[in-house]
Amino acid sequence: MIKFLTNGGDATEAYVEFHGRSKKADYVLKALPHRPAPKATMKERGFNGHEALSKDYAILRKQLEEEGFFDPAPGHVAYRVAEVIAMHVVGAYLFMCGSTYPIQAAGLFILGIVSGRCGWLMHEGGHYSLTGHIPTDRMLQIAIYGIGCGMSAAWWRNQHNKHHATPQKLKHDVDLDTLPLIAFNAEIAKKAKSPMLKLWLKYQALLFTPVSCLLVATGWQYYLHPRHIMRTKRQHTEGMMIVIRHLLFYGLLCRGMTWGQSVTIYTIYNTVAASYIFSQFALSHSHLDVSAPDEFLHWVEYAADHTINVHGGSWLGTRFVDWWMAYLNYQIEHHLFPGMPQFRHPIVSERVQVLFAKHGIKYDNRFYTSACYDTWYNLHKVGNPSLETQKAWKAEREAYKAAQAAKKAE
Description:
By secondary structure, the chain is mainly α. The protein has helices at residues 2-5, 12-19, 23-31, 39-44, 51-66, 74-97, 101-126, 134-149, 153-165, 186-189, 195-202, 204-231, 235-253, 259-282, 299-306, 315-324, 331-336, 345-358, 368-383, 387-409; strands at 309-311, 365-367.
């Protein structure tokens, strides 16, 4: 984070949000070489004028902290953990004991969805916003991510924190480095030189779910994450969780099946899980503009310019989207306050809107269907950069907006 933000940027807000609960981080920070901030350089880079925004953000954050919005909620943590356990039990029961193929398929589908929901839950554990106790949240993340998704919590924390420090910033946000499987942005797509890769990107909107999502998940589970576990010597913790996952799946769930049948079942299960979690994560960032490597934004500007919120429209629809995306549909609030328990983001969103309005900042809150359309439209546009294609899709987009407006007016 220091490397990402201190070369012309102000890391104050980011440091507080990511390390506010860590005494160790304060000790490390004090031990690092330090010098006065070069005010002239900051002014040249355009950071003058953000003093009022920084002040108002700090006031809002202090108010929220004093009102208890950052405090852990044990009841909510218990509910979230109980939910994934219950869904696993129901899914396994239907799959193993179902008398018909549709019932077994429903069980396998539930298992895939709950694997994705383990991704949502471990995400909050990785931000230390579950119990608020870092060792406990880290332990929960290791178990939930390892058993539920077959992946490394340490690898995720390393990569995801870089994303949070500078979202949608070229050469900084690791979530933009997605080749050769996918390109969310034209600047990334330009790196594709091979005719075969260009052909793949041309159809990436169709391949994204389930093909690309499954390939990403499989590569993470069986290469990238095990390699990180071995390199960082976490075999006795994260490695053990992944072993438990496979023993439960192949030794219990697929008991009595051939290896071919078991691998097929796992692939279907993994396809559902990967398609669910990766496609929903993509809604909040991937279709937005990027900032240049030498462009420095304020902490609030990163949240406003490079994330969106997603809602379901009606009261019931929004409640479903809140559950379906595990409150990460309030991505603006999540990027402003990543250490806040995520279920509180809907409550503080109105106060964030007031802050944005005061400083003339856009608060981007879109319908779920619109966010989905924008995500897949962007994939198609990036993969097919011809002017004719862009014009055609733009016309379709305008027609879609007009139809939505007319429907809303009725």
